[in-house]
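Hello,

Following up on my earlier ticket. Below are the two sequence lines again, exactly as submitted.
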Amino acid sequence: MLTVALKALLSHWVRSPFQLTMMLIGLSAATALWSGVQAVNSEARASYDSAASQVAGERFSRLEAPDGQDFDEENFIRLRRAGWLVSPVLEGTTILQGEAVRVLGVDPLTLPSGAVSVDPAAPGRLGAFLSRPGLILASADIAAKLSGRIPQTIETSEDLPDGTVVADIGLAQMLLDRPGRISRLIVASEQRSGLTALQSLVPELELRAPAAANDLARLTDSFHLNLTAFGFLAFVVGLFIVYSAVGLAFEQRRPTFRTLRALGVSTATLSGLLVFELGVFALVGGALGVVLGYGVAGLLLPGVSATLEGLYGAVGPQSLTLRPSWWISGMALSALGVFAASAQGVWTIWRMPVLASAQPRAWARASRAVRLWQAGFACVFCAGALILLQVGNGLLAGFAVMGGLLLGAALALPLLLSATLEGLRRLARTPLTEWFFADTLLQAPRLSFALMALLMALSANVGVGVMVSSFRLTFNAWLDQRFVADVYVSARSSEEGDRLFAFAAPRVQEALPIWGAEARLGDLPGEIFGVAVSASYRDHWPLLEAVPGAWDRVETGGEILINEQLARRRDISPGDVFVLGPGWSARIAGVYSDYGNPEGQALVEISEFRRRFPDAPRLRYAFRTREGDTDAFMRSLVSEFGLPSEAIIDQAQIKAVSRRIFEQTFAVTAALNALTLSVAGLALFASLMTLSSMRVSQLAPVWAMGARLPGLAGLELLRTAGLALLVTLAAIPTGLGLAHVLLSVVNVEAFGWRLPMHVFPGDWLQLGVLSMIVALASTLIPAQRLAYMSPSVLLKVFTSER
Amino acid sequence: MSVRCLFLCLWLCASAHAQGFAGLGAPAKGFASPVRGGELSFPADHGAHSEYRIEWWYLTANLEDSQGRPYGAQWTLFRTALTPGEGGGWSDPQLYMGHAALTSRTDHVFAERLGRGGTGQAGVRTSPFGASIDDWSMKSLAAAEADPLSHLELFAAGPAFSYRLTAKSDRPLILHGDRGYSLKSASGQASYYYSQPFYKVTGEIELNGRRTKVSGQAWLDREWSSQPLAADQTGWDWFSLHFDNGEKLMGFSLRDSANGFSSGTWISREGRGIPLSRNSLKAIPLAYTRVEGRRIPTRWRIVLEARRIDVTLRAINPKAFMKTSAPYWEGPVTISGSHPGQGYLEMTGYE
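Thanks for your patience. The regenerated structure is below:
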């Protein structure tokens, strides 16, 4: 009985393979985009993590031998006894029981917290870690291979890269056979004042600045959240397809359900069978989605890597590994999508009386009441978004506002459409136009899910488009302002730099040193630059905010300029006093825009800079040449001074490089945008295809009254194009709202700069045309079918009229 | 003082033992235990006793600047052994922990340092006497024939403070309990325990970037054992009191599931220590302060009928909480009542 019932249910899909295809396409597209984005994100994170944990203590400053070799642990004692909080690390590779193992030796008693990815000082572990034979923490692969084969207790740690063990430094010296040696000293970030300088205590060691790995994760988080938000949008759009396919299948099978119930299949069995059927779809759609997602990830990965490298200087992921977690999450997501989309259908079956009408109602008709409910929810979402915009802060709140805005707009759409169509219908003069509007009004609710999906995709497109073009405009203007010198040169040593300056000064209009040093600005990593204040800076440097006479104050008053990122992160503005480092605080004379730089930056007068950083390399110079003399000057640098030509960049080149980095930044967002739009097109296509087969009964009377089929097909095209146009019109204000949130909330949080909004109506025209093309393409097949429909099909409507 | 904690234990063996504060109630395997009648000999016993599990060099100072503002300073070196005895280099089982703090009416700043004995980062030597961890040190400046502890120089520093103090005493060491054998519970747990409570101190402190000359008095405790607490003892309150008349009182009260265990030593002006009879010292909490999410008594009434002592202790800074690996409250107090004066208060095991 069970098998028979199942066969009866499944036969529907055999009869309508198109519906089946649409359903699977929707499901796998939704899963694919989401899991693809997740895959890219997790690859990127894994690559930061492994980079960060490769070397313990990367987050901290380190003391190392100049040649990178081991040195005597006596340096550790000497520094500790002088009050420096340093901790020794020994790193090396050895063979343990035939396995190559990377050994990381640490001293848990002095190790600053967070210096290694595992915590050897965890309660209950430390005693064993310090005792002999000892306890080692090992990556899973090593733990499996060595367990029980060495005298040490082994504890597995998921946080260690493959092939790595962490041991007490004394044990590591023994395992690596390097008694009394250490590879580096981690320098804790907080040290007391009044300590003897490191150079005089350990002159043979060099202090290295912390790697930016940790800051990198913080900076790139915003980028990944951005991707996640788009992935989710695509998933939701994909679900609309599934929802319409499943809804239709349930409606069309109502007679089957009734018959099965009448034959004695219980509601429980029937619902169970439907859930089983949906489970199978989820499985197949999910599997397809994960495979497609792998493809999407592969497609996006180079762009993501390029963006990460260009924007943040991070080494992005280079290759993709198919992780089991993707399969699981992809499947789970697909199942969630199927059941979310079909919950309503299953619920209806569960409650359906045996003798319910078998009349297929096509789609659950969106009655006026439903539309009002939708409008109510739309208001709630929009109001929520507005409130959050006022009171919330942070990146997550920004994305929540965008989500609320999108959903609100989508839910308001049906009401908006029906109101507009009602109005147009009243204006109609001929019976055919009146029929056309009335019929469109009837179609609109059936298409509403596809149209909502289109609205969301279009709005996202408008929003991102406005953001990117606003950014491009601001960025280009800024580039022209900031890169005012004609030639930028890098010397190979400070000594060469000095000679270069002497050589160039008489040959150019202005020679500007650009000397910088990495520094911690308060608790954030950043750079301090020394500038020779000159007309070039006064006239061109893009200041966003400044106190009067800012450049004079920098030149003679010891004041500083800071970039917008630093000003926003520390919430400081011109006139405030900022602590640059121990014993160095300065008043802020102005804030300048500094796009494309993830870190904080400060400008100080050059003599002040030399006093504070006597050892900073003097390598980079910018030169303003005399009128028309640029090429000759560049040639003289190569031929007379002897610089390699790759050390010289002219203004055009430097701007081109900056623009390329800029374009990469948004390449991935644009790609996702396009993908989302195509999924929305697919949703529209699926809805129209299924509708077209059901509309014969409504078209037949019009045809019978003399309307010609090609004309009706033309009207179909016109209708879809008109609906697409209406949706585009609705998408523009929504998109502008999104753009506002992107520019004034998300960008500020993610990058640290706020941009003015620039609107390009020309782009919207383009988008309108694009959405119409999408709409027309999705109607083409149904319209063509109608145009060439055999009269017998239409006649059958009257013969089989119920 | 009774049972200065060996917090390291908590942090070394935590989770494994739920007995007593900081794992001090855990049994001692392979370690030596104090025996009654074991004669202490100096200066050898000023050094480390590596066959015992825990030990400390613990100095607390009540200080005052030229304007009469009170300060408290703490300098402590704890030793804990993973196993008895010593080893070379990194495999030395002797671990050291330094705690230093500076307390004023409004501020309480502290720092913690950890290190191993075998590497030279931390340790105690006897001739000349010196206890140190990193750049923190307690060094003897005493003449060769005098007791090494009679003249000390102390230094400690953290991110927000530092101090350098000189402490001198012309009176003898005080041996607690039975010639230094100090009982800690009714069931017989004990430690070796002696003090030098007669220091006159001068020096300079630096608190939040401001340097101040200070002077005052200090109290040094030396104690070692392998298991000083009974399993059911959960914490203690310890008092070291300098009365204005020149007398001193050390008292402790151990809290347990029953009536507790209190003891101590009354010390005469000349430096004679007289052990208190068991539970004759009454310590009654009068007022509590909420510190770091704990409810801690910061005003006490101390009664010792035999000496007609009935005084009230008030914390100079009720927020003098040591948020170290094993947290506890430690800070200076003023004494009013029958015997006015000043002193130090330590409290552990409050939740």
